[in-house]
What does this fold into?
Amino acid sequence: MAIPVVAIVGRPNVGKSTIFNRIARERISIVEDTPGVTRDRIYSRGVWLNHEFSMIDTGGIEFADQPFMTQIRNQVDIAIEEADVIVFLVNAREGITDADERIAQILFRSHKEVILAVNKADNPEQRQDIYDFYSLGFGEPLPISGTQGTGLGDLLDAVVAHFPPEVNDEDDQSIKFSLIGRPNVGKSSLVNSILGEERVIVSNIEGTTRDAIDTHFTDETGQEFTMIDTAGIRKRGRVYEATEKYAVMRAQRAIDRSDVVLFVIDGADGLREQDKKVAGYAHEAGRAIIILVNKWDLVEKDTKTMGEFTEKLRGQLQYLEYAPIIFVSAVTKQRLKQLPEMIKTVSENQQRRIQSSVLNDVLLRAVAITPTPNVKGHRLRVYYLTQVAIKPPTFVVFVNDPDLFHFSYQRFLINQLRDSFDFSGTPIRLIARKRK
Ligand code: GDP
Ligand code: GDP
It folds into this structure.
């Protein structure tokens, strides 16, 4: 479940972003290949030789107004904090610089798995010269070229060979969830209030995953939960945590590891751009989502306030129409008791399986209500509907011509599915395939 993380570090201009983008684009198949994915430039997830991993380009986290070495130091600290394997990138054309040596020292002290890659080794002569880099102390340097795309397969082979042994968590029946939201919306307060509930029993099992910062607890029904990344919420104070890109990357990592995402909004303050970005990522990753409007105690209310707030929010987050909204307060603990039950419900919905026979009854009825569209004289025909996956529920509909299966009819069918079964809190995917 906790997939390994790879970070690329090195001083500016050695080619970190070039390598990151090349690997993300060509060398690994992106897991979430739904159209319109908001892919952040510094964080990506993929697979190499059946090993799933995520990857961070530390160079993408910039620290304006800070001295050169401080910037690099922050980036290397992030890599050490976040990654299982670090790719230390240097430049074949420039040889070893002072900054390279400083980075090497920091990495060396971290005792992390480090792979030294020498970029810009574009031709055989340059590949000859890389042996100087042995003196950095990280073993055999791997020659690569970001512009030519050479050496990347060997690099990825070395990377996956250094992954920590897989943790077998098949016995783990817990529902994994995380709290996501801008700074100051009240995430850590909510965490403390949830764990402070008397009916919740916290049992932190250390050392079972690399992210031993997770919190495990059981509710009164015996359901187990794992709260992801609470230390990321609680520990504070390092400089880089203030940068938005770091915060977004952190949130994306937590989302990747979660089944359910609690998307926290400040009820007194409303929705901002940064909120939408992270919510969009959770949606596209197929996570179940509950929207928590926090600090509801601060809002002056009458009988209409909740309805109006809901309507506005639905307008701003149209693609999250399926996500339940709950108005809470970390301070007064209003409605927090309901939360474990809600998390459980959306998690169940996310794993719901519907038999094909039942699905095709729904399909027949749907087509009877709203006949399939006619596009330039060609009528869409839908033959058969079947569920192919859960987490999120994914359906394949066999049609005569997928090009005729437009967005509006797709939406209509998804809505029919939502009307017929309880999929509240979970995204649904619908894929059109040509019937052979
Ligand atoms: P970063 O600051 O470390 O992220 O570096 P960039 O990825 O932005 O690359 C810096 C410059 O080096 C860009 O102009 C790239 O086109 C160039 N570059 C990256 N990889 C290679 C390479 O393998 N060979 C050559 N010749 N140039 C490269
Ligand atoms: P985080 O950055 O998202 O973890 O936010 P914090 O939990 O640190 O909360 C930020 C500030 O909002 C703190 O001063 C909290 O005391 C306050 N706060 C959090 N939740 C609530 C709430 O439900 N009601 C009120 N009135 N204040 C809250």
Observations:
- The pocket of guanosine-5'-diphosphate (ligand 2) is lined by residues 181, 183-189, 233, 294-295, 297-298, 329-331 (CB under 6 Å).
- Confidence is low (pLDDT under 50) at residues 27-39, 207-211.
